[in-house]
Amino acid sequence: YYKVLIEYSNKQTTWFEIAREIFISKDGRPIKMSDVQVGDYAKILVNQAIIKPGYIIESVKEFVIEGDEHFITKIIKGQLAGLNPIQNKLQIQNSQILGTNSWSNYNQVAQYDLSGKDIEFYHNNKRISLDYAMNYLKRSTGEVYVALENNYSGEKVKKVTFRDGRDELLSADTILTTNANNSFKILSNDSEINVDSGTIIRRNGRLVDSKDLMISDYAVVSLNNGSNAAVIDISD
User: Fold this and answer.
1) Which one of 30, 46, 160, 203 is most buried, counting C-beta atoms within 10 A?
2) What is the dihedral of CA 72, 91, 107, 225, to 10 degrees?
3) Does residue 56 or residue 139 have the better pLDDT?
């Protein structure tokens, strides 16, 4: 058996046991469990057998991994310029896109689609609402970071984090250590780098969290306000 931890859109989690002979597929093709990555979106067919009242046995019959849906296609930084309520667009001033070793593709004012589901907003480590951001953070001097997700109808905003400090982009490097206190070290930086709930972490195109950082990962890290990671972009 394989054990797989699934997180739903409401942030609740469930463990599933998947027998080795169960069919696993992606884009209609059979794959191995070793091809499944953290952050992948999955559809699971589950059979429930009611043994007696209050006692149910579940067994997974099929495990399907989505293809390129829900990939984090771009990570943006800039300043909050406003919100277009008619078109449901987030407006970012001085927007730039994260590349391999730089922020590039400068745009004086850019708009991003807010019509997606389950969008997360943070101010540093604190979960907030979009209304809170518009009322209290619109004139802030810090940076706003935006993760855009590939969707059936185009790119849509998936996660937005407001930071109070200045951005500092580190060169891509290898993660040397990680620990349970939500911090890690990279090869070219002696100080520990802190991770919080607002940190945007992209792992091979998927949005993940701090527990999925691994030693020997190769990552681009963007700091904000000292040693706090605003963005961690992990690649092959």
Assistant:
1) 160
2) -70
3) 56
